[in-house]
Every structure is written in structure tokens, then in C-alpha cells.
Amino acid sequence: MSWFSGLKAKVLVNEALAKHTTLKSGPKAGLWMEPFDKEDLKALIKRCGHLKKEYFILGLGSKVLFKSKKVPLVIHLGSDNFKRCVFEGSDIIASAGVSLNKLLAFAYENGLGGLEFLSGIPASVGGALALNAGVGWPVRLEIGTFVYEVEVMDRLGRVRTLSQEELKFEYRGSNLKSRVILGARFRLFKKRRKNIRIKMDKFRDYRKATQDLEHPSAGCIFKNPNGQASGRLIDLCGLKGSRIGDAQISAKHGNFIINLAKADSKDIVSLIKLAQRKVKAKFGVTLEPEIQII
Ligand code: EPU
User: Which of 101, 62, 67 is nearest to 85 (CA)?
Assistant: First the structure.
């Protein structure tokens, strides 16, 4: 009998993580588990707790680089029960597994504005909340500003709803990282659909014009230090286009590392280190990754 027998979940053995990350690189997950609903997730988390099994919760894999040889257990909230969106007045209640694309389409359908700046970010609601996804143009806008409450599960399987006062969002971070995010209530505002569409297009067009969306990547690799643009600093070091194996610092945007074909995670890590070294030497600035490196 395996340690997970009796648990209700879709289980895949030796699942390639390259399939589940936007960088399209990484080793295999010994086990990939998708519990069917909250109760199954709770049972799984509790079992992991008893057996002291480490696990990693993966959303849509847009801000993670798996560099270890093997990841023992990945939990993904991919079942339909974690992909629900409902609206109540000006609020949308979305489960953690909902993609931002779906959330925005739902907001648009229901004439609710506010989140248009997230247009085109390939994340799930859970991932976007944990990292407080946002943009820097034309002003800084972040998902956390629109969150009214968040439902979480702790590492003992206990479910709680965190109120606005208990939530802490910061630039590319939050106090949600150590918990399993189950869903959130977003407080939005009524807006004409036509204007929602115009705004979504504006953000999408800016990203298309300035970012390398043609190749697999994790979006920006580094946070912007103290208001300076990491992409610009990397650019000024003459690093755009630098290549190690199939990993390359994008020629279009210095803060993007792209996968040209079959980039190895260790080549991506080498490029990260190269950029950090050069920027430190030239500007005395430490670049901190905004992606999680596992
Ligand atoms: N720049 C260069 N060279 C480059 C890249 C940028 O000189 O190779 C200059 C640009 O010309 C501009 C400045 O740097 O003057 C800022 O560039 P950009 O507008 O592209 O924004 P960013 O600061 O690089 C931030 C977010 C992005 C977000 C954009 C647009 C961070 C780390 N990045 O990028 O978020 O999409 O603003 O709102 O905060 C992400 O987090 O994955 C991400 C892509």
C-alpha cells in the first residue's frame, strides 16, 4: 500500500514539470496530485503533515524555476471544484485554481472593472495572490488592492477566512505564501464593458510592445530594486542576447530569460547569476529574483 492510498485525487507518477511551468524547464515530480475538492485537499495535507512529507503547491507555473533533480510531491488545484467564479453585487468570489484570464473574462461579462491591468498575466488566482501580481506601468497596480478576503488552509488542514486587516500585501509578496490559498473575494466596481475592454487591450498592448511574449519565460525574473528597472540595469550591462545553452537573456527585455528550445534549469540559473554579478559590479545593486527557485 502506498502512503497516499485512500486519498481521493488524480495522481500522476513521474510527471514532467516542464509541462507545467511557463519556462518549460525542470525535472520530474515524483508525484503530481490533484485533489478533487477541499475535503480531499484537507485529507492530503493532513496526511502529509503526519508523515512529514514536503510538498509544493503549484498554480500555473509562471513564477517558478525547478532546479532540483527531483521534486517529490507537487499538489495542483486543477479540478473543476477549484475553478469556480461567482459574483455577488460588485464582488467576485474566485477559487484559487481559476486562471487570471478566466477571472478577467468573468469580470468583463458581468461588467465589473478594476482588474484589467492583470490582462495577459499567465497566472492562477492563488499564485497571483501569493506574489501580489501587478504591473508598473503607467502606475503601480497590484491585485492585493482589490482583495476583500482570502480563504486559506493551513498546514494542519484548518480552513480560515482572512479579512482585509489580516492580509499583508507588498511589492511581489504577501503573508499568504506559507498557506494553501483556496480562493478570494475581490471587491470591484461597475463599469461599462466597452471601457473594460479598452483598458484590458491597453495593458496587453504595452506588454506585447515591450516584453518577449514569443518565447517561454517566467515574465520578469528579478524584482525592481528601489524603483530602478532591473531590465534597464541588465540592458546597460550589455547582457541582452547573452546565451547559455538554450537559455537566453531576451534581446527585447533585459529582465526576461527565455527558453529557446530545451533550456536546462541549471543554464537558466547560470544566467540569473551572471546578471546578478554584472549588475552588482557595475551599479552596486543586488538583484533579487521575483521567481521562486526550488
Ligand atoms: N528598459 C530598458 N531596457 C530593457 C527593458 C526595460 O531600458 O531591456 C527600460 C524601459 O525602457 C523603461 C524601464 O526600463 O524605461 C521599465 O521597463 P518596463 O516598462 O518594461 O517595465 P519593467 O519595470 O521592466 C514592470 C514589471 C512587469 C510589468 C511591467 C509593465 C517588475 C519586476 N516588472 O517591468 O512585471 O509587466 O512593469 O507594467 O516589477 C513580471 O512581474 O513578471 C512583469 C513582467
Answer: 101
Q: How confident is the model at residue 1 (pLDDT cuts 50, 70, 90)?
A: confident
**Domain 213-293: CATH architecture, name and number where available:** Alpha-Beta Complex (3.90)
pLDDT band for position 51 (cuts 50, 70, 90): very high
The ranges of the chain annotated as CATH 3.90.78.10 are 213-293
- Probe residue for ligand 1, chosen from 23, 117, 137 as the CB with the greatest number of ligand atoms within 8 Å: 137
pLDDT tens, 247-286? Answer: 999 999 999 999 999 999 999 999 999 999 999 999 999 9
| pLDDT value of residue 149 | 98
d(CA 185, CA 196) in angstroms, rounded, equals 19
CATH 3.30.465.10 residue spans of the chain:
83-195
Domain 9-80 CATH class label: alpha beta
Nearest 5°: CA angle at 164, between 46 and 152? 10
3-state secondary structure labels for all residues of 117-175: HHCCCCCEHHHHHHCCCEECCCCCEEHHHHEEEEEEECCCCCEEEEEHHHCCEECCEEC
Q: What is the pTM of this model?
A: 0.96
Output the CATH code of domain 83-195: 3.30.465.10
Work out which ligand 1 atom sits closest to the CA atom of 133. 41
Which residue lies with its CA nearest to atom 37 of ligand 1?
Answer: 136
Q: Are 257 and 248 in contact (CB under 8 A)?
A: yes
Give residue 209's pLDDT band: very low, low, confident or very high (50, 70, 90).
very high
